Amino acid sequence: xxxxxxxxxxxxxxxxxxxxxxxxxxxxxxxxxxxxxxxxxxxxxxxxxxxxxxxxxxxxxxxxxxxxxxxxxxxxxxxxxxxxxxxxxxxxxxxxxxxxxxxxxxxxxxxxxxxxxxxxxxxxxxxxxxxxxxxxxxxxxxxxxxxxxxxxxxxxxxxxxxxxxxxxxxxxxxxxxxxxxxxxxxxxxxxxxxxxxxxxxxxxxxxxxxxxxxxxxxxxxxxxxxxxxxxxxxxxxxxxxxxxxxxxxxxxxxx
Length: 255
Description:
single chain, about 40% helix, globular, alpha/beta, TIM Barrel
C-alpha cells in the first residue's frame, strides 16, 4: 500500500494538481435536505481486519459500512495487511455492508485514459459479480484519493457517487462525484478531532464520511485502532446520528 507521498515527485505533483482542479469543477451538484445529519464509515483496499474487526463493531451499533475494493488486491499481501478473501466479501455483502469500487488494479484515475478507465471498471465489476451476482458496484472511490477532472464526467455516467479524501463535512450543495471524507486513521485524527467533526455535521445538518483501512491494535500508517473506531461509533450514537452506508446515504438525500 502506498499513498501519494510515496510516489515519484512529478507523479505526486501531477496527481495533486489534478485533484485540485477536479475539486473545483462540479459535474454532479446536489443539494442536501435541510438538517439531516448522518455518518458513513468506509474502508479502502480490502484489509481483512476491516471485515473481521471493523464490520462487527459497526453492526453492534446498528450500522453498515462501505468497502471500496480493487479486485487485484483480494487475498493479497499489501506490505501492511492481508487482503480480504472472496468468502469474506460475500459474507459482508450478505450482512448488509456495501461493496463498492476502486479501479481493478488500484491505478490512479489521472493515469488512465477513457478506454483504459472503462476497462478497469468493467474488470472490477466482473470480478465481484462472479462472487455473487447480486453485488453491485454503484459507488466509487478514487485510488489514493486523487480525482481526475477528465474522468469525473465518465464516472458520473457509471456510478452514483465518487469519494475522495479531502476532509470535511458534505453539506449544502455537494458534488456527488467528489465527496469529501475525513481520515479515521490514528496518525491523522484524535478523539477530539472526531468529536469536532460530528459537531460540524450536527451544526450543518451534513453528511460526514470517514475513511480508513485496517482495524487492529497496532494499525498501519493508513489504519485505525479498534479504540478509535469505537469512539467514533459512540460519538454517532451519543448524538443520534444515523450510521449508514454510502448507498443508503444517497437514498436518504434523494440522489
